[in-house]
Specification:
Elements (H helix, E strand, L loop, with lengths): L30 H13 L4 E5 L2 H4 L23 H7 L9 E5 L4 H14 L8 E5 L2 H8 L1 E2 L3 H18 L3 E2 L18 H15 L2 H16 L5 H10 L3 H12 L3 E2 L2 H21 L1
Parallel strand pairs: 1-2, 2-3, 3-5
Antiparallel strand pairs: 4-6
Helix pairs in contact: 1-3, 4-9, 5-11, 6-11, 8-9, 8-10
GO molecular function: cobalamin binding; methylmalonyl-CoA mutase activity
Protein name: Methylmalonyl-CoA mutase alpha/beta chain catalytic domain-containing protein
Subunit structure: Heterodimer of an alpha and a beta chain.
Length: about 280
């Protein structure tokens, strides 16, 4: 199949949704709704934006999977692909705003999507500023599950530290906040169906061979010692979804599973040492 250079470059499908009231969870609901909220905030003089992602995105699952049913666009915005991130930050000057992302274990692919959108806007990665939360213990405390097993989760954090030191030197690469309650905001009517439709269009237009090849490179890097972020960026640029990239990591590291609270406590105890070690080696 010939890859279309226009695939995913449309605005979000479905009827316009009026922006809702301001919320501590800036970025809840649809990418278009969140984009409108960001533009209002910037017009009012705000230079710092906050994105909270919905539960499926935080768990590294696409909106059209059974895992996501009933949770798409609740407690945060649904971001499945580069297309969604384009909609979320369309018309936002990423060289002058600071963005904070609440995501945890899938922090790396979401940060890479942000970098890709900035590069499409002509903004170099070295100009990007912001913070990404990748608080692994929160997954145990707040959800009772983990996205990736503890040791690979810490390895992914260390890979991101190294990558950002070279590519995004002004970015704050870790924020540990601990467990927090999730604000259960209602999803926009029909959002789950529209996200599934967008994913179907993306998969129909992208080059399947390229996606398969780049995802295989992610799995290979995860199974070895290479930094997983460069092949991950290639896969996302090729049209792979966040869920597919996380599945490629799960292929090497194992699937998510209910967490043993004792493991959560061990991870929390070891987190400070692991972060200090990783920072000391980059």
């Amino acid at each position: 199949m010939t890859e279309s250079t226009q695939a995913g470059r449309t605005t979000e499908s479905g009827p316009p949704v009026a922006p809702g009231p301001a919320s501590p969870y800036d970025g809840s609901g649809t990418a278009r709704e969140s984009n409108a909220r960001y533009k209002r905030l910037i017009a009012d003089g705000t230079t710092g934006l906050t994105v909270a992602f919905d539960l499926p995105t935080r768990m590294g699952r696409d909106s059209d999977t059974p895992h996501a049913s009933g949770e798409v666009g609740r407690a945060g915005v649904a971001i499945d692909s580069l297309d969604d991130m384009r909609v979320l930050f369309a018309g936002i000057p990423l060289d002058t705003v600071t963005t904070s992302m609440a995501i945890n274990a899938p922090a790396a692919p979401l940060l890479l999507l942000y970098q890709l959108v900035a590069e499409e806007q002509g903004v170099p990665a070295t100009a990007l500023t912001g913070t990404i939360r990748n608080d692994v213990p929160e997954e145990y405390d707040a959800r009772g599950r983990y996205v990736f097993p503890p040791k690979p989760s810490l390895r992914l954090m260390a890979d991101m530290f190294r990558y950002c030191r070279a590519e995004l030197p002004r970015w704050t690469t870790v924020s540990v906040e601990g467990a927090e309650p999730y604000e259960q905001l209602p999803a926009a009517p029909g959002l789950e169906e529209r996200q599934a439709e967008r994913l179907a269009k993306l998969r129909a237009w992208r080059c399947g061979d390229r996606v398969h090849r780049t995802l295989a490179a992610v799995t290979a890097a995860a199974g070895g010692d290479d930094n997983v972020l460069p092949p991950m960026k290639e896969a996302l640029s090729a049209g792979a979804t966040v869920g597919e990239v996380c599945d490629a990591l799960r292929e090497a590291w194992g699937a998510d599973a209910p967490a043993d609270p004792r493991v959560g406590r061990r991870v929390e105890t070891r987190l400070g040492t692991a972060v200090a070690t990783a920072v000391g080696t980059v």
